[in-house]
Structures are given as C-alpha cells and as structure tokens.
Amino acid sequence: MVISFAVTKIINLLTSGNSFFLILQVRAGLEMALIDAVATSIDSNFSLDEAANLASKYRKQGFNTLNLKVGKNLNADIEVLKAIRVAHPECSFILDANEGYTSSEAIKVLDKLHGN
C-alpha cells in the first residue's frame, strides 16, 4: 500500500503542469546511466586502425564531435587521439579522463594534439 502511494505520488509530481523540465531531467539522467552501463560493459580498447576506422565512419555519418574516455594510459591515449585526428581532421574532442590525468598530464595531451 505504501509503495503504491509513493508511486502514485511520483507519477502525479512528474505529470503536474510545471514538471515538464523535471521529466526531461529524469529522462536525461536515466539515459546517461544506461549509456554508461553499456559503455563500461564493452571492451573499448581500440587499436590505432580500429580507432581511425571508427572516426572515418562517424565522419561519414556527419559527426564532428567525438566523446572519448581517456585517462588510463597517457601515451596510448595520445596515439589513439592522433590516429583519430588523421582520419577525421576537422573533429572536435570531448575528452573524459575521470581524474585519470594529473593537470600536467592533461596539458601534455593537449600539447601533443596541437603538435607541440
């Protein structure tokens, strides 16, 4: 009975007149959690050729920004990013290191991407 009441209360909250943005926020949160769960269950260690091929594929599909998990191996990350840059020169990166780099390592990655 208590669970039914709580569910009803939540549904009423989510469907009330001023809750449109709350629904969007809840949906976005669930979507991010599901994407993260799927992504972490997949082996995402790519060879340089695989990374370049994926970048080419995404370029052909019209994607100009790539979101990449980095932060486990600095030199390997730099090599993968360079391979992607060759295959998709005009792409922008969103790099998610989850605190896997120190600030000096993060600067090193950016310097290497800009040819320094």
UniProtKB/TrEMBL annotation:
Q: Sorted alphabetically, which keywords does the UniProt record give?
A: Metal-binding
InterPro entries tied to this protein: Enolase-like_C_sf (IPR036849), Enolase_C-like (IPR029065)
- Domain of life (superkingdom): Eukaryota
> Which SUPFAM superfamilies does the record match to this protein?
Enolase C-terminal domain-like
Enolase C-terminal domain mapped to chain residues = 51-114
A single GO molecular-function term is: metal ion binding
Q: Establish whether keyword Chloroplast is in the entry.
A: no
One Pfam family name from the record? Answer: MR_MLE_C
Q: Which PANTHER family does the record match to this protein?
A: O-SUCCINYLBENZOATE SYNTHASE, O-SUCCINYLBENZOATE SYNTHASE-RELATED
Protein name stated in the entry = Enolase C-terminal domain-containing protein
Q: What's the source species for this entry?
A: Papaver nudicaule (Iceland poppy)
